[in-house]
Design a protein that fits this description.
The chain is α/β, with parallel strands linked by helices. Helices cover 44% and strands 16% of the residues. The model has no long low-confidence stretch (mean pLDDT 96).
Length: 282
């Protein structure tokens, strides 16, 4: 069974894609709605909340947990993988983040390659990265893309309130204003030029992709993070198939630290077939 963790509903954009791609796998999802949003929290808080979420998923039987959250990945993944997991008493378990597959897709370069590869060193696109405050201030996208494609121009923009507004089902006009502000922030950095490509580097943002689409130039390609993460997981599971082992094929269980009925209703607004959430506390 594979675990997926997010601060709230955003990781469902990834899970939805994984369910389509792996119909025979079993998934358990945990949304930490009691503590969402993570994007403006301190690093220590994000590490601790993510650790708790990962451990809860391990206890539910997941051997592999994918952080379906850029903020948790940018801030906590490395610390949990390198410092916590080796001594945590969960042998044979693993944690994956979602920044690596996104950088691989953006740079067309494998994660293991940390130098420019021909012809990538000639990639001179302008790429925009949208994310939460913590993801953007971590600098992880700039750092990892620049290593592989030093001539690519990377501009990034934090949206402190967008993930929270999506989570709270804010009115469309409010969401539109926040997206417009984020895109304007990018364009202000490029001297009025729209980016060639955009990474929606927060798993909540695909839920308002239509608004990003409306504010970005028609020529700007939006990289689909759920798709590239699914593709990358497929590759990973080909190499390590035991992580997809499960007792019941096709099972999808959704857990929340918040109010299960309320969260189920919110999830069904954008994923009508979503199974009902249960309380992670029971
Ligand atoms: N969906 C998350 C992300 O990808 C986090 C949003 C938040 O909790 O602030 O960054």
């Amino acid at each position: 069974m594979i675990g997926i963790f997010d601060s709230g509903l955003g990781g469902l954009t990834v899970l939805r894609e994984l369910v389509l791609r792996f119909p025979d796998a079993s998934f358990v999802y945990l949304g930490d709605h009691a503590n969402v949003p993570y994007g403006n929290r301190s690093s220590d808080e994000i590490v601790e909340l993510t650790r708790r979420g990962v451990e809860a998923l391990f206890k539910r039987g997941a051997k592999l947990v994918l952080l379906g959250c850029n903020t948790a990945t940018a801030v906590a993944a490395r610390r949990l993988q390198r410092v916590w997991l080796p001594d945590a008493g969960w042998p044979g378990h693993n944690i994956l983040g979602i920044v690596a597959p996104t950088v691989e897709a953006a740079t067309q370069t494998p994660w293991s390659v940390t130098k420019p590869l021909y012809p990538q060193k000639y990639m001179t696109d302008t790429i925009a990265v949208f994310g939460t405050t913590r993801t953007i201030t971590s600098g992880v996208y700039i750092e990892e893309i620049r290593k592989r494609c030093p001539r690519m121009r990377i501009v990034q923009q934090a949206s402190a309130n967008l993930a929270g507004a999506i989570e709270d089902e804010a009115p469309e006009s409010e969401l539109d204003a926040l997206v417009a502000e984020a895109v304007a922030g990018i364009v202000a950095q490029t001297g009025g030029v729209q980016p060639h490509r955009a990474i929606l580097g927060c798993t909540h943002f695909p839920l308002v992709e239509h608004l990003f689409r409306a504010h970005l130039a028609p020529s700007t390609r939006i990289l689909s993070q759920p798709e590239v993460v699914a593709y990358s997981l497929e590759d990973y599971l080909e190499r390590k198939p035991h992580y997809a082992d499960c007792d019941v094929a096709g099972l999808v269980a959704l857990l929340t630290t918040g109010d299960a009925d309320e969260i189920s209703a919110r999830a069904r607004v954008f994923w009508p077939d979503a199974p009902a959430f249960s309380s992670a506390r029971s």
